[in-house]
Design brief:
This is LytTR family transcriptional regulator DNA-binding domain-containing protein. Pfam families: LytTR. GO terms for molecular function: DNA binding. There is one protein chain. The longest helix is centred in the N-terminal third of the chain and has 21 residues. The chain has two domains: 31 residues; 109 residues, Beta Barrel (OB fold (Dihydrolipoamide Acetyltransferase, E2P)). 26% of the residues lie in helices and 33% in strands. The N and C termini lie far apart (62 Å). It contains four helices and ten strands. It is α+β, with helices and mostly antiparallel strands and 149 residues long. The strands form three sheets. The chain has a five-stranded antiparallel sheet.
Length: 149
C-alpha cells in the first residue's frame, strides 16, 4: 500500500515539474519554442507563432492566416492565401503562446494583430471578422482599453 502511495506522489511531482518546465516557470527552462511544425496535406510546415494573425477552424481542419512575410517564407512562389492544416482547433490551442485569444469555438485571434474593434466586428489587417454574439465584452476585458465613461 505504501509503495503505491509513493508511486502516485512521485508521478504527481513529475507531472508538476514537466508542467512548470514547459510553462517556463523554471529558471533556465526554455518554455515553449517560438515555432511549431503543423501538418498539411503533403507533410509539415514550420510556423512561427508570432506570424499567425488568426485561425479559423472547421471540425478536423483549421485555416491559418499568417502575415504576408510568414506566408512568403513558407511558400515563396505562391500568391497569399490561408494555409489549411490537418488539425482541429482543440489540438492546436495548446501549442499557441500567450497573446492568442479564443473568440469562439471556431476562431482564435492573435491580439497583437487586432487593429480595430467596432460594435459587432473586428479588424485584423484588412480582414473584417464578425464578433460572435456575447463575445465582445470578454474580448474587451483581454485588452488594455482606455474607457471614457
Amino acid at each position: 500500500m505504501a509503495d503505491h502511495l509513493v508511486g502516485n506522489i512521485m508521478s504527481a511531482q513529475i507531472d508538476l515539474a514537466l508542467h512548470n518546465f514547459y510553462a517556463g516557470n523554471i529558471n533556465g527552462a526554455p518554455g515553449l519554442p517560438d515555432h511549431t511544425y503543423l501538418p498539411t496535406g503533403s507533410g509539415y510546415i514550420r510556423v512561427i507563432k508570432a506570424e499567425i494573425m488568426y485561425v479559423k477552424a472547421d471540425r478536423t481542419t483549421s485555416e491559418l492566416y499568417l502575415t504576408t512575410s510568414g506566408f512568403n517564407r513558407i511558400y515563396p512562389n505562391k500568391p497569399y492565401q490561408f494555409i489549411s492544416i490537418s488539425l482541429n482547433l482543440g489540438k492546436l490551442l495548446p501549442y499557441l503562446s500567450d497573446g492568442f485569444y479564443q473568440l469562439s469555438r471556431s476562431l482564435v485571434i492573435n491580439l497583437n494583430y487586432l487593429d480595430r474593434i467596432e460594435s459587432n466586428r473586428l479588424y485584423i489587417g484588412s480582414q473584417e471578422i464578425p464578433i460572435p454574439d456575447g463575445a465582445r465584452k470578454s474580448l474587451i476585458e483581454q485588452l488594455q482599453v482606455v474607457k471614457t465613461r
